[in-house]
User: What shape does this take?
Amino acid sequence: MSIVSVRGLTRDYVQGSIVVRAVRGVDLDIKDGEFTAIIGPSGSGKTTTLNCIGGLDSPTSGTVSVDGTDLGSLSAGALSDLRLARIGFVFQSYNLIPVLTAYENAEFVLRLQGVAAKERRRRVMQTLENVGLKGMEDRRPSELSGGQQQRVAVARAIAGRPALVLADEPTANLDSTTSDSLIALMRDLNDNHGVTFVFSTHDERVIRAAKRVVRMVDGEIESDITK
Amino acid sequence: MLLSLAIRNLRRNVRRTLLTVTAIALGLAMMVFVTSMQKGTYGSMIKSGVASTTGHVVVEQATYVDNPQATEGVSGAQAIADALGAAIPDATIAQRSLVDGLLSSANGAVGVQLRGVQPSVEPLVDTLPDKLVSGEWLQDDDSRGVILGELLAESLDVDIGDRVVYQGNHNGEDYSELLRVRGTFKTGSADIDGFMGVVPLQTAQKLVGMSDFANQVTVHLPDVAGTEAATIAARTALGTLPEGVVVLPWQESMPNIVASIEADRAGGVLMMVFLGLIVAMGIVNTVLMSVMERVREFGVLMAIGVRNRRIAAMVLLEAGVLGLLAALLGLVGGLLLAAPFIVNGLDMAALAGGSMEMEGVVLDSIIFFSIDTPRLIVLAIVTVVVTVSAALYPAWTVIKLKPLEALNSV
Assistant: This one.
């Protein structure tokens, strides 16, 4: 079954008096357990597609459904609730909350979801261990390296047990060793814990690790290859 | 969770938080200081007014408040005083009259107002006997004695023991009386020191051709808080009064003082509103700056599923915590500033370069500040409310944020 169903997605941006069409009638389905990379040159529409799937941006036309729910039918508040319950985000520049520790960043979503304290602690500790941050729970983002911060971001994205994790250029700010380690981590979470990942990326290593590669050019899907 | 995050956000930029809290607290401290001074001043006005004019409760003609005539008063004053004394045992009852006329000596003549008092009672209720600068206070049986204001004595060029002659016309009859100067007083008020004298009550009665008569029978209580109960007790004890005679609490018998206090208080409130607005503008600026710096962070919160309203609530909570801290600091700071003047008083006479007179009442030269607890509580609450209100606009900007725009902000 498809977790994500995109039909005829078009997204226009107005820049002054010029209308720029970033995505042109994209159709895309993401199934449970996929590890999909959306690739393409800058301006190809991959990040816009990802943002529309995550409900951060709205299509000019077309529909995006997550878990069978048409995002266009939801209010801003309901969209927030859907993101909280079903979607995890990993950003290029980590975007952790600077005043919270690694533990608290990962715990934040669970608190919002109303998970009981004991269960919260168990899941956060397990998640941090899974991403290789055991023993670093009390460190704030400023006390962690870029790779460690991105691991916290992954922990935050998966701690709430979302249906899928959307990752926008997750390795763009990391060195090759750290990137490899992070890709391995995400692949492990996909293989062994069933977490569905969708990336937008330029990174060859991510592309190599992906089980499915969707190439976009000029706002359209040029190829869609499942390995 | 939001509160914890709000507190941590405030700790993120400690210097800015401290500066903001200090600015708000300073505004509040100033208000606390002014409020304490106002309460002390009003207390002094009431105390002095009550002591020197109408007492806490007065029995007088209803028309006397607006048109004080020497012959307008209460007959059978002694019986009324006795009844009041029995009904309100902890009060001191005084009888007073005011008589206008001309006082002349061998060296000149001055239009004066003579205050008729009971010499043995007046020192118990008024501070005028303490303000003698020469001679001695009057005796009850000294029907010829007069105490003059220092400036009046100078105008008449008379000294202790000299004779002065009173002349007046009341109800169409001319009256004159030979009086002898027993002493002089100085209040610091040119009006009072230059145009007032004090005579025994029976002399004042004689000067208007009446006996057992006083313009006012005044009730002086140990505490102003007992005014309402004493007024009721007085009305009950006196029963049916002669036509035109009324029992009034000081608020009604000294409407000018009450109006003056109300006007001053309103001015104070206006000043506080302006001060509050200035402080609020500062808070708006600070909170807005803090919000603008974190737009991207708010975008992340939105992306992971926090509703805009919760983020706005966090911003308001931050302002609330700021307001609470400032209220606490401002109250403590204001009270510390006021404390020396609560204990030792403030020498207003020295500051004003002479005695302070309001509505014809000479205030104590030393004003003791007083804590106005209910007002301080209101001020503290208003501080928090103003601080949170000032964050409403920044919070509104958060509510309007869109996740992607927020995430893409620099």
Q: What stands out?
A: The radius of gyration of chain B is 31 Å. Residues 341 and 369 of chain B are 6 Å apart (CA to CA). Residues 14-54 of chain B form the longest helix (41 residues). Chain B touches chain A through 22 residues (CB under 8 Å).
